[in-house]
Design a protein that fits this description.
The chain has eight helices and no strands. With 221 residues, it is mostly helical. It has one domain. Helix 2 packs antiparallel against helix 5, helix 3 runs antiparallel to helix 4 and helix 3 packs antiparallel against helix 7.
Length: 221
């Protein structure tokens, strides 16, 4: 999975505005995300499926995982369209941001679940769930502290009205036109595609294992 380089703020640019564990999590966001990617690939390369590939569960989880990855990619692109042309200049509260304060992380969590299910590997699924249960919420808290500092007149009311992680569809509203920064949006597309590339890598590793070119060193039951 990838770090949210298109998130609503740039923590590295405002690190003096928040402190503590959330500040550390924001500073290390890219490094931790890449380490998580490498750990996932290592687990996939060294361990086998946690259940039989001949079972109905195998196909069901793989299809559910693929659906999560598609939703994640489209959702991240949707959120990026709304935020990348206004990043740090105004508080974005329309589109997906009208329903939830951190849509990029919400969709990333859906993508992480998709990778975990499609891998059919309990170790990978557990690692991703732990990351999104304990580490990324700290990043979100740090970024929200930055937003509170950048927009002290509007963010508190926004935070009181819109939930942090669980979308509230009844709040949805959308402007007909939003500004788009072409360069940032291009980077956003590359960032959103990381989840799809991880799935391609997963399929490639499965092919290598099926061809006998990649040994299975352990299986997490």
């Amino acid at each position: 999975m990838s770090a949210d380089s298109t998130s609503a703020v740039s923590p590295g640019d405002h690190s003096t505005t928040f402190t503590g564990l959330a500040a550390w999590a924001c500073r290390q966001r890219m490094r931790v995300s890449w380490l998580l990617n490498l750990a996932i690939l290592a687990l996939l390369a060294l361990s086998g499926h946690s259940w039989s590939q001949d079972s109905w569960l195998d196909g069901a989880l793989e299809m559910t995982g693929l659906a999560c990855l598609i939703l994640c990619t489209l959702g991240r692109i949707w959120a990026s369209v709304h935020v990348n042309g206004r990043k740090d200049r105004e508080l974005v509260t329309d589109g997906p941001y009208s329903m939830v304060r951190n849509p990029l992380y919400v969709f990333s969590a859906v993508g992480a679940l998709g990778i975990g299910l499609a891998s059919e590997n309990l170790a990978v699924l557990a690692l991703l769930l732990l990351a999104f249960a304990f580490y990324y919420p700290l990043v979100v808290r740090g970024e929200e502290q930055v937003l509170a500092g950048l927009f002290p007149d509007t963010f508190p009311a926004y935070a009181a009205r819109v939930p942090r992680f669980v979308p509230r569809p009844g709040l949805f509203r959308e402007n007909a036109v939003v500004p788009v920064d072409a360069r940032r949006f291009r980077r956003s597309l590359a960032d959103a595609s990381v989840f799809i590339w991880l799935d391609f890598g997963l399929q490639g590793l499965e092919w290598l294992r099926g061809a006998g070119l990649l040994p299975t060193l352990f299986v997490v039951p």
